[in-house]
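Interim report, section 4.2 (structural modelling).
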Amino acid sequence: MSDSEFKPVLLGRVGRPDSQTLASYRADGGYEALAKALKMANTEVIDVVKASGLRGRGGAGFPTGLKWTFLPKDVNGPIYLCINGDESEPGTFNNRVLIEEDPHQVLEGIVISSFATRSTTAYFYLRYEYGRCYRVLKQAIDEMYANNLLGKNILGSGYDLDIYLHRGACAYICGEETGLIESLEGKRAWPRIKPPFPAIEGAFRRPTVVNNVETMACIPHIMKRGPEWFQTMGIPKDANNPRDAGSYGPKLYCISGHVNKPGLVELPMGITARELIDKHAGGVWKGRSAKAVIPGGISMGFMSSAELDTPLDFNGPGRVGCLGLGTAAVVVIDDHTSMVDVLYNACRFFAHESCGQCTPCREGTAWSTKILERIREGRGKLSDIDTLLEISSSIGTIPGTTICGLADGAAWPIKTAINKFRGEFEEYIKSGRRSESPVLAGAH
Amino acid sequence: MVKVKVNDIEVDAGPKDNCILAARKAGVEIPHYCWHESLSVVASCRMCLVEVGETKPDGTVAMGPKLVPGCQTPIKEGTVIRTDSPKVKAAQQMTLELLLLNHPLDCSICDQAGECYLQDYTYKYGKAHSRLDEPKLQRMDKYHIGDQIALFTDRCVMCTRCVRFTREISGTAELQVVARGSHEEIDVFPEEPCNNKLAGNVVDLCPVGALCSKDFLYKKRVWWLKQAESVCTGCSTGCSISIDQNENKVYRLRPRPNPEAQGHFMCDEGRFGFKYIHDERRLSFPKLSAALASGIESQRKTTSANFAPDLNFADLWPTALTKARQKIQDAIKADPSGFIAVFSPFMTVEEAYLLAKFIKGIHEKARLVLGPIPSLGADDKYPKGPKGESPADGKVKFTIRAEKCPNRLGVEAVLKHFEGSVVRIESIAQRPNAHAWYIVGGYASGWVTEAIDKAVGTPSLLIVQDIFPSPLSERADIVLAAGSFAERDGTYVNHAGLAQSANAAIRAPGEARADGRILMELAGRTGLFNAMALRKEIGSAVPELSVLASGDLGDQGVRLVRFAKQAAAAAT
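Predicted structure of the assembly:
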């Protein structure tokens, strides 16, 4: 399927005045997928999702169906499904649009997924700042209860489910799977050590699956149109790489930064950054060119202007030194912007959001911010560059020095900015100039 | 047992050990801050990063690609641990550099200096310089954390041991982490200081100088302190402790880990309750009544009523003890069953044995009686629940016992052996039928109740061996100034029949003497008081105390046979 033939799937109903109501969702064939799923065995639903090749949209890209199979077979007592709606990766806003504009699409996916995972309780963990989402979701959930789509004996199938809407704790770390679980339990969102993984011991020490909002939105479409349809979109798996699970399906790309037309577009997985900017975002603003592009939220690091033809699928950004696709939040940085300033902002964000549990992340993020602060004050030393690189290479789960991936996210912008724009950093430090661009709005 | 390899050293480790414990068995130290044997694993300080691999069936070793925290990583047969690779060393250096970034490096005025894991690990695993060019974060010290605890905020390494202690061991959950990232701090809720009865333990748990004991603060540099391994005499739990003293002054007590006795901790009652040993009112020399002293009138320089230290010091004790022995023998011979020796539950087994053997050696009809057993409320069990309720059986992690003495069981064993049964002083107080008493005290505070005072009355002979003046010592014919727990060698048997040896840390004040030494001379035994030799003698003489026969009870003590059987039965 080429881009021009592509009709939005997840955003198909977005923009219509009544898109949030149950009536309009049903008129468009909503909850048919649920009815279909409820007639199947739960393992059959898992098989369909597995066959579709759907990978988690939250950032890590873990195959959703496979994640569900990690739940223990014989469980006495509850299994929980947690929906990660703590969308806080800078530049990311696809969950917000999905929830605000078409809540029933997400909720239908949640009911189907809960059925598949044998959960009778689902927790929707919603970022606190998303007030409108909260109100929309609350109304949608009330509508569902009133129409036998939630509660006891859903659609006469004998399946019971309750969804609890939980507002988050205003912290980036609450979006980390186990941080979310801790926060849900009413504790400080300090990510847990693994093992045990949430599938074995998650929320309230019960088997738990944590899935992203966009992942949930994909589920009804897969159930309705089948896994083969899902695989008509995106980049097939690399036959030479047995560990590649492919990048199938539609994907929401959040475009922001120095472009003429920022916004949310839905495209088959695997479009290149250049196409995205030029075709779908109206090009770089003010007639300038892009110096760097963040492929999927700041924690993924930077692509240089030479790397813009990289396909934005689960594997593409990794091939040019980025951490991965992340949340597919593409932030464009024009050639008038200093990478020192950009990196300073990135570091400041992570220093502010580090939960403070592991020493390397707690101290490393704050230290790198201090160094960049000094460089921006014109008091940098050339050796600072190597210090920054050493800090960034010694924090994170990839070297094994932290519990969660926040530190990896903090390290990648530093690594990629310095490796790809080292000359600019050196020139900046040698010039001894002070940064005149204002500090961008922080994470507060 | 599983076989693991630590830096090429093969060692048998326990199946439930983590890498730190397994390495410890191989004699290899894996540095760590947040991990503690008694607390849950959080793996957050990242000081214990090691390389771990496994031995494949064909004998080759496959090392994992990442560093892993030694505290969180379990071992299995064939696990290979490396703590000396360049990768591990680099990680250790980096972690220490990061921990010291905002540390004030105020060792010169820090109480922890000398026993600080930041100092030790930096010396062993760190590097000499920091690359930080920017000003350090500065934070307010918090003296309000607890009545006994001060927090030096900027020395903290955020290991959260203290937080976990209050949640998992005391169950009182006063401490918490506030703020985020490098601005994180330990704090209490407003107006809710950390004043639970186990609070002092967070000072010991703190691996750095962040949490300090107000009681000990700035009193003594730790490297001047000398340690004596002893037993807390505050209650019948009998916590293993270390008495830290310098120049005959005890500065602090600290718990000594002993899974057999109490675990890793001790209560504040015991920890701070030792002050009485330095009380100025302590009896510091033996005294004779005016009548008894009259025989040595010529040696007195003054006309004071009592035998006083203005006599030659060298003559004090020999005179008092010779008189005492003479008087006791006379009294018992005159009317054996009219003689009562009162044993204190603060006596060690050795002391009780010496006295019992001496008295019964004169006449077997002389009576041996157990003194009052101090008791306060009910056993106080931890961790407390959210509403302060006691934990369920089986979930108890620490108990402060109601019985406020260390050695009831040990003294009772001796009494049973010599007297046949244990007679409590309370049971004979109404009609003691005694004309002569030998009374041993040693209690931490006033113990002579009106009933006891009345029961003793004014007998023809009253000898008191105690540490504080009391109505009895005021009218005693002979007062023998004895030693407190810090001044005694000997054995205590705790509530669960665990016999532990205690060592003297300091000398008794003035001319006072440890009880063992008094009793050796009183009984006319030759040689110095030697607890180990006496234990051997007791072990063969008293069947119930047969486990003492080896003389050496080790660091963790030995359980009396009867209790060991009970424990084994409970385990199965």
